[in-house]
Amino acid sequence: IYKWHYSGLNRWHGAGSTADFQKIIQERCDTYTQTIRPGSRSRNCQAIRQAFMSAFISKDPCKATKEDYNSLINLAPPTVPCGQQVFWSKTKELAHEYAKRRRLMTLEDTLLGYLADGLRWCGEPGSSDLNIWSCPDWRKDCRTNYLSVFWEVLSERFAESACNTVRVVLNGSLENAFDSMSTFGRVEAPNLRPQVELEAWLVHDTGKPPSDSCSGSSIRKLKSILDGRNVKFRCMDNLSRDQFLQRS
Ligand code: NAD
Q1: CA of 227 to the centre of ligand 1 (A)
Q2: pLDDT band at 41, cuts 50/70/90?
Q3: Residue 182 class from Cβ within 10 Å (0-12 exposed, 13-18 middle, 19+ buried)?
Q4: CB 3.0–4.6 Å: which of 61, 164, 203, 230 could bond 244 by disulfide?
Q5: For ligand 1, which residues put their CB under 6 angstroms from it?
Q6: d(C-alpha 172, C-alpha 212), whole Å
């Protein structure tokens, strides 16, 4: 039993692949290309689904590389029109609401971000199926799993394509609104190009005092990362969720 447990499909500490992964990808791709952004360059959803599967199927789920996702990302790069990008960290729902109201775009509003949001996937060497029983957990098993590497490479490409003024929505109800270990802190902020301007919005829960501000140490750390890349920075704080959605 011990041996089966540690060599079998159940050995990872994270939840398994989403049931019907391929079907969901195909359906989301059809919806996105036909209904959500019908104006976008016509994309071949079957090719996208196949490229997604080939990136990880039959491979060691702890040996993902950025290169594994090259052909997928080249079919649908996560680029958006200048000045429309919204980054977020610990504010997913709020950032999406904000982007929707202002007609701006988060990573989850690009095709690949939309396809993969909330899904899980991993394969198994010697098998052409997804492992639905378990997938590596990024803390307990390995950082180089296919889910983490996917979001890292997609976030990197999204940030690299930013131009003019872009925004990040940060959680002012946390002691450190900027977390240098988050995807925004590790991958997106350090990949903004020189001359881009980043506007940070620190938004706290309505009815509570804020726990961090633009003059706090976490935001000073963000500022120093951006200074090193010649990225311009502006910061707005002390906004409740309601104030932010209404007047920003
Ligand atoms: P966050 O800390 O709120 O994390 C967002 C989600 O990603 C959480 O579910 C978290 O558990 C997961 N996550 C973070 N790092 C991970 C890793 N190494 N491996 C697996 N899961 C991980 O915010 P964040 O980390 O700053 O990420 C948000 C930013 O990065 C956004 O600007 C977005 O563009 C991009 N992103 C999006 C997603 C997504 O699921 N849609 C995931 C990661 C990154």
Answers
A1: 24
A2: low
A3: middle
A4: 203
A5: 87-90, 92, 107-108, 117, 138, 147-148, 151, 155, 158, 182-184, 188
A6: 5
**Residue 121 contacts residue 135 (beta carbons within 8 Å):** yes
Residue 2 confidence class, pLDDT cut points 50, 70, 90: low
Output 4-8 pairs: Cβ under 8 A, ≥24 positions apart. Answer: 8/133
User: Which one of 45, 82, 122, 135 is the catalytic residue?
Assistant: 82
What is the complex's ipTM, to 2 decimals? 0.95
Q: Judge whether residue 247 has pLDDT over 90.
A: no
**Coil, helix or strand at residue 199:** strand
- Name the β-bridge partners of 235: 200
Gap from CA of 243 to ligand 1 centroid (Å): 25
Kind of pairing between the strands at 14-15 and 134-135: antiparallel
The model's pTM: 0.95
Asked if 74 and 66 touch (Cβ cutoff 8 Å), the reply is no
User: What is the residue with the minimal CA distance to atom 43 of ligand 1?
Assistant: 151
Q: Which residue has the tokens 């990808």?
A: 25
